[in-house]
Amino acid sequence: MYKSKEEGGINLLDIKSRNDTIEIIWVKSYLDLSASRPTWAPLMDLILNNIRPCVNDNENNNTNPFLTSWTPPIRGNKMNSLPRVAQMLLKTARKYNISFMPIKISKDLKKNLLAWSHIGTPTNAYHKTKTKCLNETHKSTKVKNLLKIRKKLTHINDEDRHFPRKNCPCTACQKDRRIGCKDPHKCAQTANEILFRITPKFNTKTKPKKDGLSLTRRRKEKNHQAHESRQGEILFDPTTTIRSNLTDCFRIFSNPEHNSLTPAHRLQAPVRGLNLLQDHITIFTDGSCINNGKENSQSGGGIWLGENHPKNLAFRIPGSKHSNQIAEISAILLALQ
């Protein structure tokens, strides 16, 4: 009944799918962490954080819980204590597997991740007694705050040297004591321990491996010109690092089992055969469909690398579903394999 008249239906509006789409867009608005975030979103943060276990008694409740290691419940007493709109938000996020799942993020974005209940840190990395001063006195809320506190341990300056003791006379420790910190060196050590436990994917010390795939500035300019003029070739940019904001790190229809905390990088070129870091291959692919859109449609595709090349291939699409798009995509997938 929901299909078009050409397909035998009556083009009836699918109310359920429409409502699901509205709920997904609503969750998307809530996860917008940019300056254009809706005014109601911070209030939702407070509501959800009331049922979230915190690693510190005075942990900031204005944080977005989807940026933490907490898995929101979808049933039980805590779930039932929430307003109906909050329950709907959590259920929609769980139903469509909406989660924080970037491939790679820039160092600046890593610094803006939460210091407490960090999404890439095990819960046993925090100790309420040891982290109390970092939270209450130093007002540390993000990773960049912990990095600043830890800096005194690695900053080498003979004129203002840091000493590993409670009464260290360095400028940084004196400044910390003025705001009420009783043992700046101990706080720096605690911050260092927390930062060390952050998984490599979100650790600021993890450096991306050079894979020889990043486009040059000149090539990016050519891509931009080709896009603006709608003429010329646009070379695919394989750079996967997210640099804009944390909002772009959320994914829908994700598979939690495939959420790897290992940094994404390209495998090294094989020792034998084609060196993918140095050479390139031009592959031509195409697909077509006979009687496209009809019940008796048939489709197939082809791959061509060169005259009499052993990898040249012509194939037919099996099954009952056929279209030009299916044939073309199948040809590309086979070529990549």
UniProtKB/TrEMBL annotation:
Disordered, as annotated region: 205-232
GO molecular function: metal ion binding; nucleic acid binding; RNA-DNA hybrid ribonuclease activity
Superkingdom: Eukaryota
Reaction(s) this enzyme catalyzes, per UniProt: Endonucleolytic cleavage to 5'-phosphomonoester
Keywords: Endonuclease, Hydrolase, Metal-binding, Nuclease
PROSITE patterns (UniProt xref): RNASE_H_1
GO BP terms in the entry: DNA replication, removal of RNA primer
InterPro entries: RNase_H, RNaseH-like_sf, RNaseH_domain, RNaseH_sf
All residue ranges annotated as the RNase H type-1 domain in the record: 277-337
TM spans (from-to): none
Family of the protein in this entry: Belongs to the RNase H family.
Name of the protein in its database record: ribonuclease H
Organism: Suillus discolor
Lineage of the organism: Eukaryota, Fungi, Dikarya, Basidiomycota, Agaricomycotina
